[in-house]
Amino acid sequence: MSFSSEVKEELSRQDTSARHCRLAELAAIIGMCGDVCISAMERYRLRIHTENEAVARKCFTLLRKTFSINSDVSVHLHKRNGKGSQIYTLLIRDHAEVLRVLQALKLVDAAGEIQEQVSPANQLLVQKSCCRRAFIRGAFLAAGSISNPEKSYHFEIVCVSPERAEQLQALIRTFGLDAKTVQRKKHYIVYIKEGAQIVDMLNIMEAHVSLMNLENIRIVREMRNDVNRKVNCEAANINKTVSASVKQMEDIRYLETRQVLDHLPPNLVQIARLRLENQDASLKELGEMLVPPVGKSGVNHRLRKLSRLAEELRQNKEGYYYD
Prior knowledge:
Blueprint: H1 3-12, H2 19-33, E1 34-38, E2 44-50, H3 53-67, E3 72-80, E4 83-92, H4 95-104, H5 129-143, E5 144-146, E6 155-159, H6 162-173, E7 180-184, E8 187-192, H7 195-205, H8 208-257, H9 266-277, H10 283-289, H11 296-314
Antiparallel strand pairs: 1-2, 2-4, 3-4, 5-6, 6-8, 7-8
Helix pairs in contact: 1-3, 2-3, 2-5, 7-8, 8-11, 9-11, 10-11
């Protein structure tokens, strides 16, 4: 089971006790994946489609607890791009019951006209903080997903219109999260990509078990990344030290071939011999071998003199100098 499915499974088993919260959650689910069929006799039927069994179960439970309605549930196989997936359909056939649900969810106006868009910013359904949490939870159950946190951090909810995406974004931002929107083909996506904010989203939706699982994964990832950074830094330092050592030895051997090395001051000859004899030693280690000992900057200064002299000789300059 994917991490996203685990979150939905946890949310589907939540017992939403307050009726006003159940209404907000139902409004989001039906607004995202529900449609109303109107017959020639002006009779309503409500259908809710989902590919997730947990979402179908939660919607069935909400309808039963909130309206004492036992909806019909059917399952059929839907093939798309050569792949099959199960589609769960909840159907309310009774016109009066459908009308009662739509009125309670503010999906019909005073004249009985069905509202195509849920407008939570103007709804009494989401005035309370707990109801906003329930609405976001319902929207995620109906049309949301979370990527595998071991690979990346990405939370999104797919909306069918820019208005609905903006409304959902505004609701999420009331909790201090920086939700963003983007258009993807014919859909509008409300998304969050920062790990800590996804943790906050799980807290808002009250998916506390999934929150702890995500936090554990984040800790392991951060520790692994920290170790990798340190290893990469150490490897880079080693490569830098080795490259510098190879260059220094090349310069010293060049001075030997030009019969210049033995004519240099004793302190330069001493460090040159030590470098040739200790190819892998660091500047600090070379300094500790000198008598008297010299610090890293002093060793580096002497080796730079040797390299500078070798470079001048390579350029066929007359003579050499040291200071």
